[in-house]
Structures are given as C-alpha cells and as structure tokens.
Write a structure and sequence with these properties.
Elements: E1 3-8, H1 15-28, E2 33-37, H2 43-54, H3 61-85, E3 89-93, H4 96-106, H5 111-122, E4 129-134, H6 137-146, H7 159-171, E5 177-181, H8 186-201
Parallel strand pairs: 1-3, 1-4, 2-3, 4-5
Bound molecules: ligand Z5A.
C-alpha cells in the first residue's frame, strides 16, 4: 500500500503551490507519485467541478454537497485507490476536510449526515498525513488577487462565510493532522511540509520503505 498525503486550507493558502513542489520533490527522491486536485481528476469529476464552481444559477446546498462527493467518489475509485494499491505516493489538493469546512461550517449542513455521505463516497479512505495550511482570510485573498485568479462561487461568499471556513480548518485535529503556518515564505512552508512528510510517512529517500 502506498502513502496518501492531503494538503488542505483556505483559498490562497498555497495548497496548489505546495502540492506541485511535494510531487516534484518526491519524484526527485525516486518515488512514484500521483498528484490530484479536488474537485477534479476524472472526466466525471471535472464535469462536476464545472457545475460546482462555475454554475451561474442558485443551487441547493445539498445539491452542491453531492457534486463535490460525486467528484470525490469517482476520483477515489478510479485514481487514488489504484495508485495506492500500486504502492505510489498520492498527493491531493483538498479532500474531506474541505467538505466539512465549506459545506458544514461555511454552508450550515449537518455535520453527522455529511460525515456519513463522505464515508459512502470514499469508502472511509483517509490520508496518512494531512497538512493544513493556515493563512488569515485577508492574506489568502490578497494572494489570489495578486495572481489574478478568476473568482468562483465560493470566493464570492462574504467574509463571515470565509471566517467560519477558516475556524473549521483551525479546529481540525486527529491522527496525521499537522497545521503549518502558511504566512511564511514558500521555502519555509516547503521545508516544514517536507519534515512532516518524512516524519509521518516513514518514506525512505529512495523508494517507499
Ligand atoms: N470546495 C468545497 O466547497 N468543498 C469540497 O469538498 C471541495 C472544494 C473539495 C476549489 O477551488 C473550491 O471548491 C474551493 C473550495 C470548494 N473554493 N474556493 N474558493 P479551486 O481549486 O479553484 O481553488 P482553491 O483550492 O481555493 O485554490 P487557490 O485559490 O488557488 O488557493 P491555493 O491552491 O491554496 O493557492 P496557490 O494557487 O498555491 O497560491 C495562490 C498564490 O499565492 C500564487 O500566486 C502563489 O504563487 C502564491 N503563494 C503560494 N504560497 C505562498 C507563500 N508561502 N508566500 C507568498 N505567496 C505564496
């Protein structure tokens, strides 16, 4: 069985940047790596992503939840599980904690019901290591603006929504959960993340041990 690493955090925290860097570093160390983003990564998941993020009309919160979970179910079954079974390191940009942060803390859906639905979608698959990048809402927004990112439905939500999302990330705890101060330089974030990857997953520097 391979190793499953998830990078989580609010918008503009630097998740995609870190996932790209971790994947490249792991490959350079001799590992086989699959990097994925959520929602996305299969034809069904990319189609669900388009509707979940770009649909111009109102959508019921439960419909939105199931779009994210449809995307995740397909990605887990068709990409993540096969890669782990082949002994690869899977690095994911977002996973279940995003759903608990955005749809539950942000959107107000009931936590227990959503947790059940997530288990159905993933078959209970969880990461070996979850790096939660922490940045204040204003810092993340400023980074997105500097990068000229086109806003999606979530980025247009009000500040109160984004603060609830951030608080949910800050409360995250449990086996394998590590919080990283992502206001630091990219290099400092990468160094901190790499230390955690080494410590938590017992990866050798040449191939999975
Ligand atoms: N969503 C949901 O509601 N429920 C779910 O279950 C799931 C997702 C899975 C996905 O959007 C949306 O889906 C997301 C939640 C919702 N909503 N929003 N908004 P996405 O994939 O399009 O966007 P994102 O995940 O929020 O990505 P992002 O805005 O691009 O943020 P990021 O990946 O964390 O940041 P980045 O692209 O790596 O970096 C942003 C900029 O900052 C870039 O110019 C970097 O060069 C720069 N950067 C990165 N790190 C640093 C540091 N350390 N210092 C300075 N500058 C930095």
């Amino acid at each position: 069985m391979g190793v499953f690493i998830v990078v989580e955090g609010p918008e503009g925290a630097g998740k995609s940047t870190l996932v790209r860097w971790l994947a490249a570093r792991l490959v350079a160390e001799g590992h086989q790596v699959t990097a994925v983003r959520q929602p996305g990564g299969t034809p069904v998941a990319e189609a669900a992503r388009k509707v979940a993020l770009k649909f111009p009309h109102e959508m019921s919160p439960v419909a939105e939840l199931f779009l994210f979970l449809a995307a995740r179910a397909d990605l887990v079954q068709r990409v993540i599980r096969p890669a782990l079974e082949a002994g690869q390191v899977v690095v994911a940009d977002r996973f279940d904690l995003s759903t608990m942060a955005y749809q539950v803390a942000g959107g107000g859906l009931p936590a227990e019901d959503v947790a059940h639905a997530i288990r159905l979608a993933t078959g209970g698959l969880g990461p070996d290591l979850m790096l939660v990048l922490d940045v204040p809402v204003e810092v993340g927004r400023a980074r997105q603006q500097a990068a000229r990112k086109v806003q999606d439905r979530f980025e247009r939500q009000d500040d109160a929504f984004h603060r609830r999302v951030l608080e949910a990330y800050r409360r995250a705890a449990g086996p394998g959960v590590v919080h990283v101060d992502a206001t630091q330089s990219k290099k400092a974030v990468q160094d901190a993340a790499w230390r955690e990857v080494m410590a938590a997953t017992a990866l050798s520097t040449r191939g999975v041990s």
